[in-house]
Amino acid sequence: MTADETAMHADLRRRVADFLAAHDPLTSDRLEFLRARYDAGLAWVSFPDGHGGLGLPRALQLEVDQLFDEAGAPDNNRLANGIGLGMAAPTILAFGTEKQKQRFLKPLWTGEEVWCQLFSEPGAGSDLAAMATRAVRDGDEWVVNGQKVWTTGAHSARFAILVARTNPDVPKHRGLSYFLCDMTVPGVDVRPLRQLTGEAEFNEVFLTDVRIPDAQRLGAEGQGWEVATATLNNERVAIGGSAGPREGGMVGVVARTWREQPHRRTPELHDRLLRLWVEAEVARLTGARLRQKLALGQPGPEGSAMKLTFARLNQQLSGLELELLGEDGLRYSDWTMVRPEVVDFTERDAGYRYLRAKGNSIEGGTSEILRNIVAERVLGLPAEPRVDKDVPWKELRK
């Protein structure tokens, strides 16, 4: 570590210590504490001054969070607002006006306003540019009509990031615009989609004459594809590149089951567990390297590879856990239809983990589409034939 880096770490620790001395985490009001932390630049330390940060390297965020956790400080309920924190916030920072940043970033970080994502449609999932939801300009507002689907947390969201077609007369990738949609306005109808697990964390959302002020358009009119691509890059990093300890997450659950079930062990199961343990550790270290790269710039297509690995390992590990448990793995604790705010793999039973992991290769970009991204943009392999006769394939990839 250089002298400058040492001084930066020391200054950051001093800032946190001074903040905690002025705001007792054990007696302060939770929301007031979080708002003050944002104002002090100790929310997203890599964000600019005035927007919850100090303009420091992104790699320092983990150190700051650990210092607050050790002090018993309240958190901003990261799991309940993952879409807002991992997708909406960096997109607003990159493409938003100063007024939009001032309005949306602080209540997003404190958790006062939860966000969801209105991208996928019944006829436009992996092929996002095929979306049919329309937004028509009416003075200083846009009138939106259409249907979105697989919307995580829409039942508890205050705002949504929304992509809609604003120009049907140009090639499909160029006719999209990106909006920040208030989920409480008239015309927004959220309906639950019950899943294989019995729960309904996903929803379908019907938009009928929903009015969105032009001031809540993010980026230029027709720039929606570019803005959405940035959002999806952040999403894949958030899903597949999150920090975790050795033997954390699903591999930790399966390793614990192995240790608790010695009578079910076989050489074949042992070999599979060791192989998956090594792959999970490689993925963890690769994620750490990816986060170091992110500290130097914006996320790239490498996040797609991490998300691919996350989905595959979760599915293979959850299947191995069921085999280790034998007949006990067939039990399912609760089929009650609930609409959860948080999805937690590690605190549920094995049957839930096995069923829920099936969605990992669909949500956040299907594994098939992500393999194409990795092949073309990371490995440099030849692209598939262009799918839009009016637009050269190289243009679609931008």
Quick description:
Helices cover 43% and strands 13% of the residues. The chain is α+β, with helices and mostly antiparallel strands. The radius of gyration is 22 Å and the shape is globular.
Protein described:
The protein folds into three domains: 3-110, Butyryl-Coa Dehydrogenase, subunit A, domain 1; 115-220, Butyryl-CoA Dehydrogenase, subunit A, domain 2 (Beta Barrel); 228-396, Butyryl-CoA Dehydrogenase, subunit A, domain 3, CATH 1.20.140.10. The chain contains twelve helices and eight strands. It has helices at 3-22, 30-39, 61-70, 82-95, 98-110, 224-240, 249-260, 267-294, 302-325, 350-357, 367-378, 393-396, and strands spanning 115-118, 134-138, 141-148, 159-165, 176-182, 188-193, 202-213, 217-218. The strands form two sheets. Strands 1-4-5-8 form a four-stranded mixed sheet. It has a four-stranded antiparallel sheet with strand order 2-3-7-6, with no helix packed on it. A hairpin with an 8-residue loop joins strand 6 (188-193) and strand 7. Helix 7 runs parallel beside helix 9 (302-325). It is globular and about 70 Å long. The two termini are 37 Å apart. Residues 389-398 have low confidence and may be disordered. This is Alkylation response protein AidB-like acyl-CoA dehydrogenase. Its cofactor is FAD. One of its GO terms (molecular function) is flavin adenine dinucleotide binding. Keywords: FAD, Flavoprotein, Oxidoreductase.
